[in-house]
What does this fold into?
Amino acid sequence: MNGVIKAKIYRFNPDKDKEPYYKNYEIPVDREVTVHELLSIIHRDYDGTLAYRTFKCYKGMCSTCIVKLNGQSVRSCATPLKIDSEITLEPVKGGRVIRDLVVDFDKM
Amino acid sequence: MDVKNFVTDVVVIGGGGAACRAAIEASERGMNCIMVDKGRPGRSGATPCALWSIQAPFGPRGRDERDSPEQFFEDMVRAGRFIGDQNITEIVAFTACDRILDMERYGVKFKKYDDGRFYQTPMPGQTYPRSTFMYENGQHMSTVLAEEVSRHDSIEVFKDFFAFSLLLNDGRVVGIMGLDMLSGDVLTINAKATVLATGGYTSLWGFSDNPPTLTGDGVAMAYRAGAELVDLEFNQYYGTDVIWPPSVRGTVVLYELMIEEFANGEITDRNGTSIIDKPLPIRDEAIKIIFNVIREGRGTEHGGVFFDTTKSPKGEAAVRDVFDTMTPKHYHFLIDAAGIDLAKVPLEVAPASHYQCGGVYINERGESNLPGFYACGECAGNFQGANRLAGSALCDTQTMGAQVGGCAADDAKKLDLLPPDKKNVKDQMDIIQSFLSDKKSTQRPIFLKEEILKAMDKYVAPFRDGKGLKQGLGIISSLRDEIKKISIPDIGRYNLELREAVESLLALDAAEVTIGSALFREESRGHHNRTDFPETDNSNWRCHTIVVKKGDHQAAYSKRDVIYTRLKPEDK
It folds into this structure.
């Protein structure tokens, strides 16, 4: 089954941007993907400048991939997205934002 | 670009089980320590993905009173096909119980019998049940260790720090250079002793059950500085990792759980015929059986075999309870990410890259051939041999982690701090600069890295031959030209493309010497199966493979005798 995921993603590179902003992506998919997979597809095929956590476990264990999905904190590697969903992704609270979705966690 | 400099006694590269334990030991011996982690300590690298099993021969304090360090030693030597150095194996076998007690003191929760003895699970290749059982598995262990590190004031932790080279003063290793992802700055850490604990590089292969970030920076930076590497051809595959669906690809589900005591299920071909007999074989034998079934065309739709507990005589509820108590994180990850309940449906699994038996050549103190440079954990080489048992990897992180961290600290006490050579600093800095300079072409590192992984999957699978390995080397060589074309337009902190570019550069070295080692060893043993040399050749090849750098991209391969202390091979 083919479809599109529409993602509105928080962007902020303090070395370049004066203010945070949101960027919209429309990503064609042929199956349900996890939030992590979606971010990897965007980084690989659409926008190499998107920053998200990659030094992590990828198996639902470490919790460092948490992002805010439509206002709720989720583990991005363990959270599937329906085909044709529209989502907003933002950094979670609990530390300063380093860049885009990457947070310097106070407790991890 | 400015380079900021930090100074310490002992610098530890890595943030998993071995790195944390080495840093704790160095600190407890009175040294200041900086530990650098590519991600967040205890939450990146391979340790969080590990399962419950950590071997320790508790004997009367455990499940079977007959077990002993001597028996543990012998089991490891035999499983390693007599290629492991026994001076190191002795330390692992004889200090394992003490290190487990340390872990318990730090806060790791072990399953115990009512009378206080350690509960231990039987795993293939263990003469007596020897794997102590950590609730919540490797993730629990690694976060507890990271918390213990944070209780030591003399350990400073640099998080999100990507170390990419060793610094030298006239052949002595005097620290590291790395990229601070949080600021985008390049930093040097000048130290009296440098401990490599970066884990393995299983994700130099595309299909791996470890995090994809493990692509060989550690061994590559050691190699580039002149360290000897050993036995890289023995990359261990694990038999039953999820191959489908893609969202959970590479999740490890243990075939060791198929015994009667646990899930009592079967590994089957696509027709449901069981392919692995019980008692279960050890890992190098298990993966050969699975590979052959797939090669014979009896595999599943996506090229695997089935991990099937649905016909277990124990029934669904009891099987679910096994997964839920023994591998709770992995079990629930499959449900959360893909809606798959292991107790209800057969799962497609296949052999994936799992562990490096080889790595930096060390002695029993963790010293490499380079003064001031030590290694422990999976990135160190010569004790697992040609194959390793379940529960030996985590055990190694604690035993050799403590041993090597302690030895590095003892040596650091006697040493002066030497600065890196100025030319050396500039050369290492040029690695970064070369990717930032403006070029016309637009090769992207992420695609280059994918090419390396594809070549490894294709030519350095557990069954390999000289012709394919040479083709693999050819691809690596052609990618060296491509990497020169990389130009990173992005700037500033957390620059993933810059990180990928440097990782690719290091991965090319790791790939080249791994393929080269596999080509050098003209026999089959453990996890190294040459289809053009299918026999084990003890008269010529019961020895280590050593590789060391000679000039630019010139690797020199040689043999070295294995160190036997307590148990010599019987046939001589």
Notes: Residues 434 and 484 of chain B are 8 Å apart (CA to CA). The longest strand of chain B covers residues 3-13. Residues 496-520 of chain B form the longest helix (25 residues). Residues 3-139+151-167+211-234+357-377+389-414 of chain B form a domain with the FAD/NAD(P)-binding domain fold (CATH 3.50.50.60).
